[in-house]
Amino acid sequence: MLETHLRKDRQTLKLGLIKVTHDLFPAETFETVCSIPNGVFCQLVGSALSEREVKKIELALHKWVAEKQPIQLLSDQDGYYHYKVNDLIIKTIHPTSENSALADQFRILPFFGGYVVDFSPNATNTTFSLPRRLSSTYGKSQLWLSNIKIELVSDVNNYIKAGRYQELINIAEALQEKEIADIADMVMRERRAVKVILIAGPSSSGKTTFSHRLSTQLRVNGLRPVPLALDDYFVNREFTPKDEKGNYDFDAVEALDLDLLDKHLEQLVNGEKIQAPLFDFQTGCRLQETRELELGNDGILVLEGIHALNPALISNITKSVFFRIYVSALFGLNIDYLNRIPTTDVRLIRRMVRDEKFRGFMPERTMSQWPSVRRGERKHIFKFQEECDVMFNSSLIYEMNALKPFAEHALNNLTSDSVHYETKQRLLRLLSFFEPIDHSQIPFNSILREFIGGNIFPPSEHDYNLFLHSQRMHKNANS
């Protein structure tokens, strides 16, 4: 399944939205705010829409699609595709179709003073569940950006051009530290019931650094964080499920020994000691040695991994003992009001930079694996995100500026004959809107350090184990 921003039929519909909104509300400014599962949230800048007005937009857009209006590409310059839609010139960073009739099916629903464009299959016949917690987290980030008078990528660029980038870094990092401290305080307030913290999130969301920083704040509050690695509960290699290509699927929940994990969690919660397993990724087997763990009076278990919010992990334990955190990189800046920065691309760039620096993987491999990563996220992670007690946005307003030189260096390894050359060009187009920033001034406990290097925290066991496994596979292939 193509990402929303890569589908021409959905980009075509976006042009129609801009066109009909301009016709209906010529004095207003249309804004694409963010993507949500199977949809996009849009609004008018500084102006709330009524349900009646949202219905007018939907009817006008259906009419525009039915009329098979031509869409003319005028030029491709300055990072934008310039299109002519009837008498309106629209700039977009993604290509579209040449006729309105090729737009994707849709419905439009009023939401938070704006509206959601729902692209769900058979959208007119399905019930749409609005992701309240995700939308609230986006809204919180947008409010913070408004408070510090930053709205678009150009605002961040202006800080950098003026030599004020350190101020920007300090503000962004202070916000995250405050939010992490607030979460630690929330845990402390529920300390009588809470025994286990579950931390989940998609690839390259910064879960590992977040876990370390949260653990530091928990220690400040007088608690003793006890880390438990989900990776140590992998089943032996011969029992690991495989994906549709016949490769081991370490992201499948069935790759874990759920019975043992459930038993150990229950024992720890009840104050008992456990002999936690240790898994050797090089042999693909559980070691004979174990690690003794217990929580004690001041201990709190910290369990981080992509499946941490999956109910299968905690099926036999009362839910009140768990505090559930979802971490994701919800990049909040737009290039302009019409063109948002896809959060998926931000995570892909994070992963690409980290893969090259720490795993020895070139962008060719990262991009080849990305569709599988995304399928796993849709299957195992996103459907549980609304079950969390709190959602943490790990994105930093300056991160694309900091990642730019690393990402461009990695992308330059892709040649024109690569199957991922089009992706290279698309990401370079996206990066072209950002002024580079001096990364030496980024704090060494920053989430961004997990990707660019210099992190004071060790890598997650999952990342390290994947590295060991890749090295072993590479060695076997060459022997």
TrEMBL record:
Residues 196-393 form the Phosphoribulokinase/uridine kinase domain. SUPFAM superfamilies: P-loop containing nucleoside triphosphate hydrolases. GO terms for molecular function: ATP binding; kinase activity. The lineage of its organism: Bacteria, Bacillati, Bacillota, Negativicutes, Acidaminococcales. Keywords: Kinase, Transferase. This is Nucleoside kinase. PANTHER family: URIDINE KINASE.
